[in-house]
Amino acid sequence: MSGRRWPLFSLMAFGYAFLYVPIGLLIIYSFNESRLVTVWSGWSVKWYGELFRNDQILEAAGLSLRIAAVTASLAVVIGTVAGLVLARFGRFRGRTLFTGMITAPLVMPEVITGLSLLLLFVALEQAIGWPGGRSATTITIAHVTFATAYVAVVIQSRLVGLDESIEEAAMDLGARPLKIFFVITLPIISPALVAGWLLAFTLSLDDLVIASFVSGPGSTTLPMVVFSSVRLGVTPEINALATVIVALVTTGIVTAGILLHRQDRRRQHDMQAAAAAGGRAADLARV
Amino acid sequence: MSRKGFLPLGDRLSRGAPALTASGLDPLRRLWVAGAALAGRLGLSGRTLVIALPYLWLLLFFLIPFAIVLKISFSEPLIARPPYAPLVEWVEGAYLEIRLNLGNYLFLAQDSLYAAAYLNSLKIAAVSTVLCLLIGYPIAYGIARAPVTWRMPLLMLIILPFWTSFLIRVYAWIGILKQNGLLNNLLIGLGVIDQPIQFLHTDFAVYVGITYSYLPFMILPLYATLERLDPALLEAAADLGCRPFKAFLTVTLPLSLPGILAGSLLVFIPAVGEFVIPALLGGPDTLMIGRVLWNEFFNNRDWPVASAVAIALLIFLVAPIMAFQHIQSRQQKADAR
Q1: What are the E-state strand segments in chain B?
Q2: Distance between CA A73 and CA A216 in Å, rounded?
Q3: Mean pLDDT score across all residues of chain A
Q4: Model pTM?
Q5: Into which CATH architecture does domain B112-301 fall?
Q6: Residues 57-86 of B with CB under 8 A from A
């Protein structure tokens, strides 16, 4: 590394430090014995004990995980169909509106989305008596709606970058569109499906604003509990919770990354093998 | 899967139908065939049905709600459940009365709080976007110039914080910035200051919070453009006697403008409507439009005014951005041709 690289290097180091020092401090201070979060008085894991005895947090975490799992699964189904429509269906009546409805949730301030969905649920209840009060169901519907947009964008960009010739070959061989989709397209875009599911899951797990608008009594999610306790001040229990979340997310991401990387390598290996075999076949044909 | 693949569903299934009915298959199957035939008669193809699923969902849960927000922004607040008066009412069983209450919008225009909150949101979002750019550009540039094997791990390290809870990342700054927090302790310990400085509950804390939370959104598009940049251009500039810094200013920077624009939009837009960061890190006088809407709704329970704020924000923020993106994508398509 030459001498004039050092300014860039130090700027990068500053950037990474800016990203990681706050999280690092949060983790270190979760092992602090003192209740005063900023005064160090020795190592302790007692706040983790307190955390796992805190029923309110545990219940909210369970609810949030359930909502996130249902949201991610539904959003992957609807979002994949939406991405397929955007990438493969060409022009159709109402396409502009459709594209708009996919991109708008990405730029819409959360307070607006939350308010509008709440007003919809209230109006629906007045008109047809459904969904019968605000609950985990209304939170899930709200989360599916904005997560679908993100999944659709992920799937669409994957499909656009995909070679259509395999699908066309299957069609020439007489496969029906539905069969082509399930047997060829879906397996090829499976990494994007995993990425979309994880993205939807995290978005749902992380959402405070929209859930606050559409939740009712008895459906308090984890971010809502964290927000109300953080508003009262810094508490070591939240530090412990943060450390647990960071540990889980890091493990999940690194595992998914390694698995996808391995799968990718295997596919590349297969493709090289296929190319080599093809080359040999061509050689034989030439002989 | 091109368009010709999606034959009308009814068409395809009715061809197989005689065989199925003749062999007397289970009733479920027969129902499916009959339904498909009906769909074909109605002109509904498989293609239409596939489009319909996401289309109807988004129509019902994304577009229609805005019509309701618009409607309620014209109604009068009422102490009831729900807390607004109906717009359309039968009076004495004979008159259809439509009451459009423009009062909420007049209220927004007259009370300077709302205009101030809107302008302040734009200011805070703009400053944070510039900070993101200043911190993010060197990182994106450094990753794009790093050896290929290093790029993926370096990028992963940028994305990783994005996957951890947003709320918790904002929370981390409270412990650092508060009166007896880590930053003040550090500065006092180093002898830079004698008295703790008020960091938390100021605009400064909001800038830091937004910059910290949205930095990955700036770095990723910047990296995408910088990585595609042809290094031969810089070599050519160097061969012609251009200093590295000047080459950066005249070659790299202009060519990375699309990335700068994309990253800035990704930071600026959500930052304007931000609620959590000003609520946790900002002071009582840190007015932002998202916070004002939240307070109107939850604290004042004034749903019509909250709806009017939402509509105003939609007109003054979201609509211009969507129009801008639409024009830009059309231009890109025209350039590609």
Answers
A1: 88-91, 95-98
A2: 23
A3: 86
A4: 0.83
A5: Orthogonal Bundle (1.10)
A6: 57-59, 61-66, 68-69, 72, 82
- Show the domain range for A92: 22-35+42-242
Provide the domain count of chain A: 1
> Which ipTM did the prediction report?
0.83
Residue from B53, B62, B104, B186 whose CB has the most chain A CBs within 10 Å, to mutate: B62
Per residue in B113-168, pLDDT tens? 888 999 999 999 999 999 999 999 999 999 998 888 888 889 988 988 888 888 88
Domain presence at residue A222? yes
Pairwise CB contact (< 8 Å): B5 & A180: yes
Identify the segments of chain B with pLDDT beneath 50.
1-23
**Closest chain B C-alpha to A239 CA, distance in angstroms:** 8
Question: Which of B66-72's residues contact partners 24+ apart within 8 Å by CB, and which partners?
Answer: B66/A116, B66/B314, B68/A116, B68/A119, B68/A120, B68/A123, B69/A112, B69/A115, B69/A116, B69/A119, B69/B307, B69/B310, B69/B311, B70/B307, B70/B311, B72/A119, B72/B303, B72/B304, B72/B307
CATH number at residue A58: 1.10.3720.10
The pLDDT value given to residue A18: 93
Which of B72, B163, B300 to probe by mutation at the A interface, max A CB count within 10 Å? B163
